[in-house]
């Protein structure tokens, strides 16, 4: 078939006016040319689409169906152009984003809220991934952007620090040290600890263990749940204590007390990371939002 989109537009214009002279004027062409094109369209279809008389023209039943399909095809083509242009501008499409526990308690919700307010037609697909998983997914281009524990030093990856959270001691509210203003790590060296499982929390565990070793001990870890809720739940149940990045007080559950740690200056840095060769305009717009709302 040799029909093109322009032929659908021509027939739709003629079918809606049912007048060769008016249709030719709308199409900015001579009436004989319109007549020849209409004949060509009918020949390609293989059936008459118009009933012609000296006074007027009308659509045949086949012509009515063809008009309906012409309008649908024109609409689909216009929608395809619109979505393609919107995607090229970063105004429509998908963004795949991975996050870990510390990110969701930091600026990520605020960043997402601001981004969706400005780019409401972007579908943000969220996935929970541990930091090590995110590193691999970013390098393999399986996700567009990740929020993970930094640093992430790789020549193929760009990063923006989005939050810096000091390490805090989290104790059961009935703990003997709960009335202290600050906690000296050496005073809890023999305590049982609760940390996220090493298979998932290694980057964070490595930082904490270095801090503890500098204070003369290696934590005696007796429980290793997978997520933050379980960590805090075990502490609230008086099954141990933990060290965790500072977060808004309202995000800690009942039954725990949070205290600064004396002499510890290390912070957990959460970074937004993405592949440098990712050409997505949507990703560009998102990282611009990250820059605006990242914590200094």
TrEMBL record:
Please state what the protein is called.
Answer: LysR family transcriptional regulator
Q: What GO terms are given for molecular function?
A: DNA binding; DNA-binding transcription factor activity
Q: Which family does it belong to?
A: Belongs to the LysR transcriptional regulatory family.
- Bilayer-crossing residues are none
| Domain of life of the organism encoding this protein | Bacteria
Under the heading SUPFAM superfamilies, the entry gives: Periplasmic binding protein-like II, Winged helix' DNA-binding domain
Keywords, A to Z, come to: DNA-binding, Transcription, Transcription regulation
Record-linked InterPro entries: LysR_HTH_N (IPR000847), LysR_subst-bd (IPR005119), WH-like_DNA-bd_sf (IPR036388), WH_DNA-bd_sf (IPR036390)
Q: Which organism is it from?
A: Borborobacter arsenicus
List residues of the HTH lysR-type domain: 3-60
User: Which GO cellular component term is one of those annotated?
Assistant: protein-DNA complex
**Signal peptide residue numbers:** none
Q: Which Pfam families match?
A: HTH_1, LysR_substrate
Indicate whether DNA-binding appears among the record's keywords. yes
On whether Hydrolase is a keyword of this UniProt record, the answer is no
